[in-house]
Fold this protein.
Amino acid sequence: MSILGKIFGRLFPGARAQQPQAPASPQPAPSGSAPQQPQTQAPAGTASAGTAPAAPAATMERVDIEKTLDGMAASNAQKLNWRTSIVDLMKLVGMESTLQERRELADELGYHGDKQDTAAMNMWLHKAVMKKLEENGGKVPANLLD
């Protein structure tokens, strides 16, 4: 699982449920020719009935990222500044925040700057993660997207 995927999984309740469903569909497809026809029908049925209710629930019911992270921070023994620090954000959601992890996250998100300049990379990563959260169903305050 990607680093960003781990962050999503800890902030979006439906993210974990959606991941096992994706592998389930491709597995029946390679079984044979006959399952290919039901496979075409299955995604259509899933998209209409199964995925439609699940996807809008996750998309329409936007997760308030600020409220979620503030709640996590309130119950955390460490005082973490998730609003400006990618290191603290990663720690808050229970992830490793090592330089290696952050460099992998930078690769996932397409960072083209100097990874030796960790301050610049970290600031870019925080903004990029907030934008990705916003793009994928999170409600992120405007001041965290700038």
Notes: Helices lie at 3-11, 15-24, 33-60, 65-74, 86-92, 99-109, 118-135. Residues 3-11+62-144 form one domain. The longest strand covers residues 63-64. DSSP finds seven helices and two strands in the chain.
